[in-house]
Structures are given as structure tokens and as C-alpha cells.
Design a protein that fits this description.
Blueprint (H helix, E strand, L loop, with lengths): L2 E6 L1 H8 L5 E6 L14 E6 L4 E13 L4 H15 L3 H7 L4 E16 L9 E3 L13
Parallel strand pairs: 1-3
Antiparallel strand pairs: 1-6, 2-5, 3-4, 4-5
């Protein structure tokens, strides 16, 4: 089982906390090593962009994508957007993505807000004993 840190814009994080958003989508033009490291049963720490870690969730299910086409992304939007809650701008920005993952979330639990020292631009981090921002102690 892996532990992850996912950085989210506040409206999306709020929607996860209220149960309206149940799928986290990540779509990229280039292959991201971490995509294949997400599995059912993994734990995710949810952090607001430029804010604190606010919740945890468990990965219920994962669906990976490679060699995506614009048609497939449009189909993804049609099929899953009620759970992803991406606006039109999100889907326009992602239309040329070739790689992605959909992560179904369950057991979302708010935690006492915790600020961490993370200074890079990664929006998803697979936590390791060496790089865990003190979050693994919260298990």
C-alpha cells in the first residue's frame, strides 16, 4: 500500500469533502511515473493548493489511460464528469492529454489542518520514508 499527497484547488477539495466529487482525475501530455503507483487501498492526504492538508481518503478504484485521443477525453468527460466535476475550461485544457488516471475516492475524512513545507510544483507526490512531509506519522 502506498501513501500519496494530492494537491487540489480549493473548490475541488471542498467538493470532495462534501461528497459531491468522488473521482479525482489527473490528465497529462507526458507520462508521469507516479500514475502507475496508485492502487486500490492506497491512502491519499488531500492538501489545498497553497493551503493545509485537510483530509484523507482511501483509493477505491483506479483506471489508467495511455495514448489518449481527444475523442476518448470527450467520452471520459461525458461518462464521468458528474463525479469529476470538471468545468469546461478544465476539459479544454486537458483535451490534448495522452496519459491519465481516474481515482475513485472513499472514506474521505477531514483531519485537523496541517501545514507542511512543500516548495515544489508537483501536484501529486507518492510519499516515501525519506519524503513524507511528516504525514506518515499521522497514519
Amino acid at each position: 500500500m502506498n501513501h500519496h499527497l494530492a494537491i487540489l484547488k480549493k473548490p475541488y477539495l471542498d467538493a470532495i469533502l462534501t461528497g459531491k466529487k468522488t473521482i479525482e482525475s489527473r490528465l497529462y501530455q507526458t507520462r508521469q511515473k507516479w500514475l502507475s503507483q496508485v492502487s486500490a487501498g492506497d491512502k491519499i492526504f488531500l492538501k489545498a493548493s497553497s493551503g493545509p492538508v485537510m483530509a484523507t481518503a482511501t483509493v477505491d478504484k483506479v483506471k489508467y489511460f495511455e495514448n489518449l485521443t481527444a475523442k476518448q477525453i470527450a467520452q471520459m468527460q461525458k461518462q464521468y464528469n458528474q463525479q469529476i466535476l470538471g468545468d469546461e475550461q478544465y476539459w479544454r485544457e486537458k483535451i490534448s492529454s495522452q496519459f491519465g488516471v481516474l481515482v475513485w475516492l472513499k472514506d474521505v475524512r477531514p483531519i485537523p489542518h496541517r501545514f507542511i513545507k512543500k516548495f515544489d510544483w508537483r501536484a501529486w507526490v507518492v510519499l516515501t520514508p525519506k519524503e513524507n512531509f511528516g504525514l506518515l506519522a499521522l497514519k
